[in-house]
């Protein structure tokens, strides 16, 4: 019910607009009451989300074994953005030659910090490094710019073998737990995995101003339940604004009814092409944002 509350409020608001004269005192009273209800629902949702995030933080913290100076992970203002395993390519310098080795690393990315680990089991991870999120610089690594790769030989080897982990990107840690700069060449198994990690590791997007009127809109035609923390759960008839499309079948978008952003399969959606419907959806989004913020 809470997830759909904004839509219910929007329907009530439209009903008021249609049934009550705008110059009537009842119009403003009802409008203000709807704003108060919207605020209450939002606060309840935020409280439940904070509790759920805090519980997850305690669980993850209990699974981490620090081989370096411990990081105080549990905080009510911290939450998990994305987690998962990646392939790291490291150039080892021997006495007479250089060779590239492949290592598996497991990232826990939070809203303000990245914890780099090596997985021991499904419930145990050795922490090898960490960095504040504002110290991260991420960049896609394509075949045409391999010569500038921080691990040049590793990149050349990967593409020459056409391995499944050839979806590369660079991660520069400007200052790690020891105050040192670290360059990492990372690989994922799919193109969408790379896009999702680049989006997640990139700087906070709240400050980026995007003209939503220029974004493609899609309507959800099949229910989807999020399986990872960077995905969106969607219901039939939801409308989503698309920020990014990846060729192997994934969208990154913003759910119109509440502004939540995340990834979902293209097969669950169809593009909206009717101009009148697109304009109506943008007007509706403006009303919903107004009800939630202008209280």
CATH superfamily of the largest domain: SH3 Domains
Mean pLDDT: 82
How would you write the strand order of the largest sheet? Answer: 1-5-4-3-2-8-7-6
> Structural class of the helices, strands and pairings?
alpha+beta
Put simply, the count of helices is: 5
Proportion of residues in extended strands? 25-35%
Give the number of domains.
2
User: What is the straight-line distance between the termini?
Assistant: 22 Å
3D architecture notes:
The protein folds into 2 domains: 2-55 and 209-293, Roll (SH3 type barrels), CATH 2.30.30.40; 67-205, Pleckstrin-homology domain (PH domain)/Phosphotyrosine-binding domain (PTB) (PH-domain like), CATH 2.30.29.30. The protein has 5 helices and 13 strands. The protein has helices spanning 5-19, 25-63, 152-161, 191-201, 275-293; strands at 64-66, 80-93, 98-110, 113-121, 124-132, 136-141, 167-173, 182-188, 216-220, 239-246, 250-255, 261-265, 269-271. It has an 8-stranded mixed beta sheet, with helices on both faces. A 5-stranded antiparallel beta sheet has the order 12-11-10-9-13. Strand 10 (239-246) and strand 11 form a beta hairpin. Helix 1 runs antiparallel to helix 2 (25-63) and helix 1 crosses helix 5.
Structural key phrases:
five-stranded antiparallel β-sheet, single chain, 13 strands, 2 domains, 32% helix, PH-domain like
């Amino acid at each position: 019910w809470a997830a759909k509350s904004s839509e219910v409020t929007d329907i009530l608001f439209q009903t008021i607009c249609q049934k009550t004269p705008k110059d009537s005192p009842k119009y403003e009273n009802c409008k203000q009451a709807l704003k108060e209800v919207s605020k209450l629902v939002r606060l309840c949702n935020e409280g439940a989300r904070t509790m759920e995030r805090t519980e997850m933080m305690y669980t993850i913290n209990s699974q981490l074994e620090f081989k370096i100076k411990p990081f105080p992970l549990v905080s009510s203002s911290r939450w998990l953005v994305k987690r998962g395993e990646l392939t790291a390519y490291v150039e080892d310098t021997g006495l007479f030659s250089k060779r590239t080795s492949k290592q598996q690393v497991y990232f826990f990315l939070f809203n303000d910090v990245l914890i780099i680990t090596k997985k021991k089991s499904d419930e145990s991870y050795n922490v090898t490094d960490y960095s504040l999120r504002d110290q991260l610089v991420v960049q896609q690594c394509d075949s045409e710019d391999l010569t500038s790769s921080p691990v040049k030989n590793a990149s050349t080897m990967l593409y020459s073998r056409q391995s499944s982990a050839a979806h590369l990107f660079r991660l520069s840690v400007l200052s790690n737990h020891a105050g040192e700069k670290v360059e990492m060449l990372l690989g994922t198994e799919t193109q969408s995995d790379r896009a999702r990690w680049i989006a997640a590791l990139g700087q906070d997007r709240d400050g980026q101003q995007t003209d939503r009127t220029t974004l493609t809109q899609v309507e959800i035609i099949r229910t989807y339940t999020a399986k990872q923390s960077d995905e969106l759960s969607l219901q039939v008839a939801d409308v989503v604004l698309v920020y990014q499309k990846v060729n192997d079948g994934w969208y990154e978008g913003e759910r119109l009814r509440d502004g939540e952003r995340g990834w979902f399969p293209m097969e669950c959606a169809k593009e909206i092409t009717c101009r009148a419907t697109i304009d109506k959806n943008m007007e509706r989004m403006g009303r919903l944002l107004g009800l939630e913020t202008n209280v």
